[in-house]
Amino acid sequence: MTTVAPLPAPGLETVEAAAGSDYAQLSKQVRQAGLMRRRPGYYTVKIAITVGLFAAGWTGFVLLGRSWYQLLIAAFLAAVFTQVAFLGHDAGHRQIFATRTGNDLLGFLYGNLLVGLSFGWWIDKHNRHHAHPNTEGADPDIGDGALAFTAAQARNRKTVLGRMLARSQAWLFFPLLLLEGFNLHVASVRALLDRSDGAHRRRSRTIEAALLAGHTAAYLTALFLVLSPGQALAFLAIQQGLFGLYMGISFAPNHKGMPILSASAKTDFLRRQVLTSRNVRGSRVTDFVLGGLNYQIEHHLFPSMPRPNLRRAQALVRGYCHSHDVSYREDSLFGSYAQTLRYLNRVGGETG
Predict the structure, then answer these.
(1) pLDDT (tens digit, 9 = 90+) per residue, 218-245?
(2) Which of 136, 145, 146, 332 would you call most buried, defined as having the most Cβ atoms within 10 angstroms of its Cβ?
(3) 0.70 cut: is pTM over it?
(4) Strand pairing partners for 140?
């Protein structure tokens, strides 16, 4: 099984390809097509635009002053925060720079300082997800929590509240996403307070904690200095709520409702990644809105592939899967949400 480092390894695909497999043949075709090459021009423009929008949002916030129209700025910044987080995701997979140092630096600045999330904690969690997508007991994204993602989790709900939540989880899914931004912040702080990891992680954690503290201080100071207390609280709720919702609806279509693998399942890398993932059909607007996550199959097969190359890789990957009789799932955005909700409703019914 692939070993996952605390921060991004050179790429899960590199290890698997070296072993020789169906995946190795596909990987060779992808590399020969030049799809793993860095895209410095794209990311230069992307970073400049995203930082510009981030700066424009906060400039508008200061210029508008004490006004309830600030709630419109809050919604705008929720979208911008998510776009910044998408770039942090790309950096975490080493899509942007050739060196780990460059990607980590961008990840720390974008994740901890601009968005207020622990980059180290998130990428460690995300790498474990990539190594074991939709695998019981191994994928942290389907771990037991507020929602039950497997029948076993639903059946293990012992309290009345837990069983009621599971039965209603399809209806509660989108409302709960409004709390996801707050949940990510809390999880980041808890991870930075955890001192059970190694010395290398402790050093990076100190840097992360300083950046996260700077973000929190600047964010809250700006809100309560410019706005009235009521306006500040409303801004906080809307900006963080919509940020969590946007993040949630971007990641939810990727795996929810796709096959769940048992911890003992013996599946090769190609099939493990493809069969548990779902692509979302759409235009370049969809690519922008979802941060390239709509090409989830290609992304899981080649995590370090630069985001703009995923669209180009799709035809090659889809054709290869069809020629090897590997199911390649692609649905509309709303169709993927419908499947997610049906799955959550079915699992929730397992509580009896």
Answers:
(1) 999 999 999 999 999 999 999 999 999 9
(2) 136
(3) yes
(4) none
